[in-house]
UniProtKB/TrEMBL annotation:
Transmembrane parts of this sequence: 53-72, 79-100
A Pfam family the protein falls into: DUF983
Organism listed in the record: Parasphingorhabdus litoris
Protein known as: DUF983 domain-containing protein
Domain of life of the source: Bacteria
InterPro entries, per database record: DUF983
Tagged with keyword Membrane: yes
Keywords from the UniProt entry: Membrane, Transmembrane, Transmembrane helix
Length: 123
């Protein structure tokens, strides 16, 4: 992998600007600043849309669905099955909530760096 991409991913994992590596990207849980507080990089030029939610949800589903199914099938009583199911859903939901901001920051940093935008049919 290119060193530049690795640096962008690392800064995204720290929730920092990909341009300067110092400024905080978020002013809320998932709400970006309009500009980087450190280097004044315009953060409105890219839109991550539903990409981060898709990637995080898909990853979590692939990892946790088999675990939840095995947990539910491994216990005997119906109450234990219900508790195992809800515990699995709770843990997978928490994992999604933890992973969503870094994935959103990584995608924003990559979009800004590579000047990507919405796809068009124009040639």
């Amino acid at each position: 992998m290119d060193d530049e991409v690795i640096a962008l991913v690392k800064s995204g994992m720290k929730l920092k600007c990909g341009h300067c590596g110092q400024g905080k990207l978020f002013r809320g849980y998932l709400k970006f600043h309009d500009n980087c507080p450190n280097c004044d990089q315009d953060l409105t030029v890219a839109d991550t849309a539903d990409g981060p939610a898709f990637f995080v949800g898909f990853f979590t589903m692939i990892v946790f669905a088999p675990i939840i199914l095995v947990l539910v099938q491994s216990v005997e009583t119906i109450l234990a099955k219900i508790l195992a199911f809800f515990a699995g859903v709770l843990v997978s939901s928490l994992v999604c909530l933890v992973l969503l901001p870094p994935v959103k920051a990584i995608l924003l940093n990559l979009q800004i760096n590579y000047d990507s935008g919405e796809g068009t049919t124009d040639k």
